[in-house]
Amino acid sequence: MALRKAHGNGAEALVRVETPPVDELGPGDAPDMAGLVQRRPDGTLTKAGARVLGRLAGLRSAEKRRFAAVLADQLGLVTVPEHLKPYVDVATDFARAEVAKLGSMFGDIGPGPSSMVQSAALALAASRAAYADGDGRTGARLADQSRQLLLTAHHLAELERKSAKTAPWWLGTNGGKE
């Protein structure tokens, strides 16, 4: 991470957080994901593996409902109108895939990066809806906001991973190892 001189409208700010460009973001290091779902040697699920997948499906369904409620709330709506539901569904899948991708790169993803991804997905959903309504200016602005939030989520996940590796043992973030 390089320090940069503040510029533009934020040049006089006391503190300015700037996400590094894409080519400066780290690749992460993938954690071992084996053994999350138990399978038999022939690849079929064990009873325990099926229960885990069932729980995950239930969580996914609840997450979709929660995400739709958050979008409705942010848009000032009681419920998500029918014309926005396709965008919300795609945004929910997008957010889940992006958090999974970050997880495969950096391990456990904390609430900060997850929040950035959720916000990026909401901005993307609103962007697509704006484009569909013929409002290209708003659509482009929201798409750019989504891009910036994704870069921020990546950077924050990377910083959290690095700090977890170097944190003192007494903070308990590295499994009690020095």
What distinguishing features does this structure have?
single chain, 178 residues, mainly alpha, 0% strand, flat, disordered C terminus
Structural topology:
Elements: H1 47-74, H2 85-106, H3 111-132, H4 136-166
Helix pairs in contact: 1-2, 2-3, 3-4
Could you tell me the mean pLDDT?
75
Output the structural class.
Answer: mainly alpha
Largest sheet: none
Strand content: under 5%
Assign an overall shape: flat
Q: Low-confidence runs (pLDDT<50, min 5 residues)? A: 30-34, 173-178
What pattern of helices and strands is seen along the backbone?
HHHH
Count of helical regions: 4
Estimate the helix proportion, in percent.
Answer: 55-70%
End-to-end separation:
24 Å
The beta-strand count equals 0
CA-atom Rg in angstroms: 20 Å
Describe this structure in words.
Helix content is 58%, strand content 0%. The protein has a domain at 45-165. 21% of the residues are buried. It has 178 residues and is mostly helical. The two termini are 24 Å apart.
